[in-house]
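Exam revision sheet. Question 4 asks you to relate a sequence to its structure. Input first:
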Amino acid sequence: MSDILLEVQNLSFHFGTRAVLQGVNFGVRRGESLAIVGPNGAGKSTLLKCLGRLLEGSSHSIRLEGKPLEFYRRKDLARWMSYVPQAEGRGAPFTVREFILMGRYPHLSPFSLIGARDREAVERALEWTGTRAFSDRPLDSLSGGERQKVLIAAALAQEARILLLDEPTTFLDYKHQSEIESILWKVKRDRGATLLLVTHDINTASLLGDRILALRAGEVVFLGSPEEAMQGEVLKDIFGKSFLFATHPETGLPVVVPERVDQ
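Answer key, structure tokens:
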């Protein structure tokens, strides 16, 4: 069995006449965490949606376990992959528990009843994400950080082996950022999940990613380890600006720190 779980070969994608992705190539190993970074408009979210077949027209360039992505029925693919969007303010007429239970849809037939295994999966997801305390609250009563935890809980209840995470910590306060990062780390470590994480935060990418893939203008401009990525010339080539670094006190890796703004 190949160690490569997901393989992307010469992937291109267009919105109308505009090329968003061009000649993208990379592979993702089983149990790996791949952080995807790049400036605004680089094609990061588009890439993630192509991988989850949320955008059609590119699946011939993507293979899952050696098989073309279009080989999989939608329901079968949902047992492999779960897409976790960025939490938004729009509400839904469900409680937290009801919403997480919807994550079981790949395992249910149209006429089957919710069974013990489904309820156990929901309880495990609540426990993993620390959402049990507000499991009976309406979704639209939650904060952004709480809502993001619920989205991840639904993906865990789905029992997908690959999580596609689109900016899971953006716009969250430091407490919720830390909690989300801790959840994702445990999911990778203890469940052996494969993570593909889109983020604007290069520090988050270096802490959570086994490898970092960088896009610029729809093309891959870097693929390597956090140690290789967190270098001045590498980041300048990706983002078009210089960065100021310090050493992380726990990992020893360079981290980007804010520059002083001259008055």
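Marking note for examiners. The first strand starts at residue 4 and ends at 15.
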